[in-house]
Amino acid sequence: GGSYAHVEDEVPLLEELGVDPKQIYRRTMGVMHPFRVEDSTDEDLAGPLLFCLVMGACNLLAGKLHFGYILGWSTLASLGMYWLLNQIIGGGEGIGLNRCGSILGYALLPVVGYSGIVLFLPSKTGMLSKALAVLCVTWSSRKASVGLIQAMPQSEGKRMIVTYPCMMLYTLY
């Protein structure tokens, strides 16, 4: 027979997977304050994955089954922004793929909030819905561009060049 380790000796599952709920909460609250700049040196992807699942659940409640689109688009967007940002920087220290995906994923939170709020609006194409969409896309774009520029100090003077693709990215969600 084999011997099994006792449950008490096992490392907690979240710790083994590298998921830190306190860090996810801290970064989430950092995104929820639109004008607060937060240091985003970590490469956590658990929070962004959770946000994508919540956005997919909101779309499911609206009668749209878009989990694959959301996860696929998030992956392609992270790869595209990673490539674009490293091309903008040129030589020198660029940004890592995980860090880029983490910043873009956490900045997705206002758009996820919009997908939940729009469930309760009487008109999905009305003026209020459109105004909220513009607000959430602008909020997400600002948080992403500030985080990405903070992650790459050599891109300090290129804020609009970083913000424009972020704006296009969050508009497509």
Q: How many structural domains can be distinguished in the coordinates?
A: 1
Helix content: 55-70%
CA radius of gyration is 18 Å
List the secondary-structure elements in sequence, H or E: HHHHHHHH
- Estimate the mean pLDDT confidence: 87
Subcellular location: Golgi apparatus membrane; Membrane
Family: Belongs to the YIP1 family.
Membrane topology: Multi-pass membrane protein
Domain Yip1: 39-170
Give the helix/strand layout.
Elements lengths: L12 H5 L3 H12 L13 H16 L5 H23 L7 H11 L1 H9 L9 H25 L7 H13 L2
Report a brief summary of the structure:
With 173 residues, the protein is an all-alpha fold. It contains 8 helices and no strands. The mean pLDDT is 87.
Description:
One of its GO terms (cellular component) is trans-Golgi network. The chain has helices at 13-17, 21-32, 46-61, 67-89, 97-107, 109-117, 127-151, 159-171. It is mostly helical and 173 residues long. It has one domain.
Which structural traits does this protein have?
173 residues; mainly alpha; 66% helix; 0% strand
